[in-house]
Amino acid sequence: MTPVSRSQLHDRDAYISAFGDFVSASPSSYHAAGAVCETLSKAGFAEHDETAAWSPLEASGRGFVRRDGAVIAWRAGAEVDATSPVRVLGAHTDSPGFVVKPRPDFESDGWAQVGVEIYGGPLLTSWLDRDLGFAGRIVTRDGAEHLVRTGAVARIPQLAIHLDRDANKSLTLDRQRHTQPVIGLAGEELSVLALLVRELGGGRTGSGRGRAAARSAARAALTPEDLAGIDVRLYDTQAPQRIGANGELFASPRLDNLSSTYAGLAALLDTEPHPGTISMIAAFDHEELGSNTRSGAAGPFLSDVLDRLRAGLGASGEDAARALAGSWCLSADAGHSVHPNYSEKHDPRVRPLAGRGPMLKINANQRYASDAHGAALWSRLGSAAEVPTQEFVSNNTVPCGSTIGPITATRLGIRTVDVGVPLLSMHSARELAHVDDLFGLAKITGAFFATA
Questions:
Q1: C-beta atoms surrounding 373 within 10 Å
Q2: Is the pTM of this model over 0.85?
Q3: Which residues, in sequence order, are bridge partners of residue 114?
Q4: Which of 190, 134, 124, 119 is nearest to 158 (CA)?
Q5: CATH number of the domain at 6-95+253-450, out of 3.40.50.1010, 3.40.630.10, 3.30.160.20, 3.40.1360.10?
Q6: Fewer Cβ atoms within 10 Å of its own Cβ: the N or the C terminal residue of the chain?
């Protein structure tokens, strides 16, 4: 993966190229968290172990901690103290798709197949007839965790038009029968677990000398019988690519929501926090499922980290409450651009378009956490970053989804504003954004970290 450099936040093309590398390195939430941690470590951020004692914040002003497929990182500005507010860019590392089931291997009518379960709300038909791989983490019987990914080994085949003459009128997939991928022919002793062991890559999580040697030894020694548990999903192996007549569009898997995760990472590395503040990124897992996990936004991860950082500053309960009252969370998650072929699905007057800037997301029923104060902050940040912004609101007949924003605001009482990059084809296996919007979100996030 191309390392994040300061020039990326001042060079749109360099930023987009590096973001494409990040997406390619992040076929699962576990890989995304690993890629973030690797980048931070190379930039001098100290990795923190949740089971160990943490040094005071003044002695480790830049750090990060990983919890499964989530990661939280921080960078303290000058003159931080027990009442210093935080500026949190909240995002998520997971995307809708398919997760491998237990006892996944089966055969049907001469084909070797893999049992998968639908994760979140993917656009199912977009996954048909694509070259797919498997990626995620495996845990061996000794408790060691390994990141794994294969190349293109699977495909969810669509039924030929000759066998369903009405397919172009209305294609409805049975979520169990029609979504199981093929990986080869029956009778060839194919096993997805054997594939994972054979293609083992990424090694044991964590850091330290000898990791490459341990990884090599693990590859040689492991067998499918050594696997005690797996968290593995399908991913589209087609690489991100700039398209459009002028190269202004970016077609990629997992823009929802690696677009926000990478924007936060790049801004954290590039931007010196405002004196007396602490810049943070909180990239949670499981947002597509509602965030109710230990590594999700509804879990205790962020509050745990904040409590430990405050303890390192010697904060009392009164100090911590004052700090939180002065803090902000920028909840960044991809949103919808007006679709040119389905324009009636959008609000008739609020018409966000690709290329016109990241969006402020508004919902009267608080599916998004933005309010008037959040709108004012967003306007100031756009002006400071010299990035155009726009607004999103749903058509009253098309209910909107939600984000980590309301969850974070509810759990912590922190002021929160929901924003994001406009997309076409959200929750497709391959989504579409404008390069200016992707770059603009990173620049605005930098302004957010630099703001008092």
A1: 11
A2: yes
A3: 105
A4: 124
A5: 3.40.630.10
A6: C
